[in-house]
Design brief:
Layout (H helix, E strand, L loop, with lengths): L1 H6 L4 H8 L13 H12 L10 E6 L2 H22 L6 H17 L6 H11 L11 E8 L6 H18 L3 E5 L9 H6 L6 E10 L14 E5 L9 E5 L2
Antiparallel strand pairs: 1-2, 2-4, 3-4, 5-6
The chain binds flavin mononucleotide.
Flavin mononucleotide binds next to strand 3.
Amino acid sequence: MQEHQELIEWTSVEEVILNRRSTRAFKNEPIPDFMIRRILEAGRYAPSAGNSQPWKFAVVKSAEIIEAMEKDAVKVARLFMWLLDYNRPSFFRRVVLKPYTKLIIRLQKNQLHPVPFGLLSEIAKGNAPVFHGAPTLILLYEDVRGVSCPATDIGICGQNMVLAAHSMGAATCWIGLVKLLMYLPKWRKFFGVTYPYTLNDLIAVGWPKVKSDGIVPKEVQLVDWYEGGMNSRPRVERQGE
Ligand SMILES: Cc1cc2nc3c(=O)[nH]c(=O)nc-3n(C[C@H](O)[C@H](O)[C@H](O)COP(=O)(O)O)c2cc1C
């Protein structure tokens, strides 16, 4: 069986998985509605714990709304950096506030991890956009009443959408930074984000403006293979080499 698998080419699904990249430059022309519906369908058919389907979707195609989202997200990014960037040249900030800001960063360690923190800083300086000028945004609401871990279900659902979009030649980018807007009651009200829903991610979708630079290397994973009995140690395989 294994020999047989090694002989065959990548399947079309594997090809899409391997070639998909996040795109951050989109053409103005949106993808047609029928494609958006097909992408939503891929999400709707995602597996979920207990088949609870703890999601709700919204499609934003209005340039006016997307522009307003962009402006407000940048404002929140600026506020965050004003509050949290303790390296700014101010004695009060560097010495007095530093321990408190460090504590906040530690408590919000996922949200304020160096990668999003670095991006946030660039957004605040006006060097990077939040929604990348995408003509269409698919909002992924999470129903917190979902069985087990609804965030996992949302990830699977969104990835189904992303892969479906790429299989049709469209480009996507997950935007976790939509969370910036959720600090503003105005946007929570606008998009109806009230219990039981939260909005942590959206998917920007459109036609790519640039050609992706192809498959990028990913970390090699050390995978334990348990093939012997209870008393034997797993064989470690370097996956990806
Ligand atoms: C849940 C999630 C949230 C993300 N949020 C953002 C985001 O807010 N802005 C952004 O530019 N990219 C975002 N990304 C894209 C990642 O940066 C990207 O997937 C990663 O760098 C790997 O690159 P690749 O998608 O081209 O393989 C997000 C990805 C995921 C899965």
